Every structure is written in structure tokens, then in C-alpha cells.
Amino acid sequence: MKITFLGTGTSQGVPIIGSKHPVCLSNNSKDKRLRSSILIEKNNKSFLIDCSPDFRYQMLRINHEKLDAIFITHEHHDHIGGLDEIRPINFKMKKTIPVYGLHRVLENLKKRFYYIFSKNKNSNTSKISIYELDNYMDFFLIDYLKIIPLDIWHGTLPILGFRIENFAYITDASSIPIHTMKKLIGLNILVLNILRKKTKNPYHFTLSESLEIIQKIGSKKTYFTHISPFFGFHNEIQIQLPKNVYLAHDGLNITI
């Protein structure tokens, strides 16, 4: 299984428009972060977790032109804003792309992208089919690949993470329920959000909170994503992290 980090930044991306923060002014490519999303390739199939507003450029940047399914963690704009950009993939693959998410999230998509779901839509709109996960919280299958949705809290908003084999992707988490923690035992690779070092945020983990989660899960390797510029420079932070904990960066590839 191949994992590609398409974006590793927060909702505004890094650099932030107009910001004079030193990280936003950095010349290091690892400090330049598009909105968070990840591509998973397995058995000649391609799966996207979240479709960020930067989706078009993210796919062009890695020269990737196919998708077999999209998994949505939640309905915030930085995680769904690129859905209108899948049209060229529809045309090239000559197929509708299935999108999986919670009922609440899919209803939100219908409102935001009403023209995609319109009965009178024209041929130049994205073609997606939607599948609710509310009643499939143990697992669901795509071409014999077992996908396990994970209950996560983003502040007071219930959202999803996903586990596929010995890999799990969790973003925008502020807490992880005990029953979800049990589903994360035995991971080779965990991807987990980190916003800032110490400043408490009601919607995202701080560094100490993320490290505590990692210790409880015992994943062999963990990669941080959804990183704010206020967390610091990539190279400076990386050398401060524990063994087998890494800052992800845009374009990073991992093979499991």
C-alpha cells in the first residue's frame, strides 16, 4: 500500500495570505503546506481521504489522474472544497466516483454542491454517488479491501477517521473515544493531527496531547499532519520529536 500526503496544512494552508510569520516566509518546501488530504493506492485502486480546496493542484503536482473512491472525514470547507474539481477524472475514467461519509456530512454536500445533485444537472458537473456510513461503523468493503470508519471528536462535532489494514488516518481530532482507541491497536502507521505546541485549542490536539495518544496506541510510526505555521519550522521541530514520530510534509510517500 502506498500513501501520498497531498496536503499537510491547516484550513488556511501555509503560508497564510498576508502573514509575516517566519514559517510563512520560509523558503523550505517542507514548510509550504496545502490543505490536508491523503491518497492511498492499493491493488491498482486509488482512494482519497478528504477533497481539499487544493485538490486540483495536488493531483497535478503528483501527476495522478484516477480515483476509485473518496472518504470524507467531515464537512468543513478545507476537507470538501475540491469536490467540483473531480470532473476531469470523471471524464477520463468514464465513471461516477463514490463518496463515503456520515449522513449529516453528505446532506451538507447536497446543499453546498446542489448543482452536482440536481436532477437537471448538465454534463459538465462532477459525477459522484454517495454512500452513508452511519450504519456501517464496524467496516465496509471496497473491492475486498476492508475500511474501518473511526469515531472521532472535533470539538463537539462527531467526525470520522479511517483505518485500512495496519494504517490509520485521523485529522482534526480533539479527542478519541475509548472504543475507537481499541480499533487502533496494532498499527504500523498512524497519521494524526497536530496544530500547535502548547496553546490549547478546543478543536485540535496540542503536541503533548498527540504524544499521549501515540503512547496509548503504540503505533510503530506516527506522522503528524494538519500543521499550523505556529507549530514551527519543519526541520527544527523534527529533531525535537521522539523516535519514530515524524512531521509529514506535502508530497511525502510512504509504502507499507
UniProtKB/TrEMBL annotation:
SUPFAM superfamilies: Metallo-hydrolase/oxidoreductase (SSF56281). It comes from the Bacteria. InterPro entries: Metallo-B-lactamas, RibonucZ/Hydroxyglut_hydro. Coiled coil: none annotated. It holds the Pfam family Lactamase_B_2. Residues 34-226 form the Metallo-beta-lactamase domain. Signal peptide: none annotated. This is MBL fold metallo-hydrolase.
